[in-house]
Structure prediction request, 311 residues.
Amino acid sequence: MKLLSLARTVVQQRQDVGIMCICRRFSTHEDPFGVRSSPKQTDHQRQMMAKGLPKQRPIEGVKNIICVASGKGGVGKSTTTVNLALAIAAEDPKSKVGILDADIYGPSIPKLMNLSGEPELSADNKMEPLVNYGVKCMSMGFLVDETSAIVWRGLMVMSAIEKLLRQVNWAPLDWLLVDMPPGTGDVQLSIAQSLPLKGAILVTTPQDIALADVRRGATMFQKVHVPVLGVVENMSVFVCPNCGTSHHIFGQKGAQKLSRETGIEILGEVPLDGRVCELSDAGQPIVVAEPNSSQTAVFKSIARKVLEKAS
Prediction:
């Protein structure tokens, strides 16, 4: 019995050692499942693995491409994209601006820009962007019914993104803003790796949970060598229209903390205003509907910084 007990102890110790080795192997965030390439990997093997990566190709007729991302939904990224595009057009009237809605599952640009209908085809069989407020727009929302759910797997989504990028008659365009879907998955990586991006703008609220996702987004862009132009803190403060008192509904100084930790510049802090929501639902971006409002002033200030950085 003692011999059997000793044997069991030895087996258990070996299992514990094995588990400890596995834990050490999986302990890094960079390689949690131990799939990193071996240092003994040959140059030929590395070249074969790299063949799967998309190659950067410009979009015909488009000079500058900027993506607007958040890492998290519900922070007002699409509303920021629309108003920033209109602010860029207002600050640089000679430039031609466009918006690509890259959120296949939940396209918002059609409603925000008050656009509907199917795009026409040009002579060379490319889709013509729909235009409102002088801004060219393309979205999956123009190609499917508003109430239809898009139930697609990854490969179909990537094919759709490629068509929205390459089979649209964007030219001539000085600035194309890409409204990215939330997260750091296939779509984000493919856009970041296949387009010559001037940079990325990150949108957040002061909430800690939103800031955590923005940090992940910043890390993703860093890994794919896309410069982060700055962060926009949306819904930063609510100013009571009756008494003028400021209320930090979603927390305060979140973007400032993020900027200190990461070195990312704060492009602007957009206050929370019910009018922005009302006008957005009506397809009237505040930059156009109320050009003299405090929110519009913030978006124009952000636009000037973006134009200076990206140029």
Notes: Strands lie at 62-69, 97-101, 130-132, 135-139, 173-179, 199-204, 228-239, 246-247, 266-272. The first helix runs from residue 2 to 25.
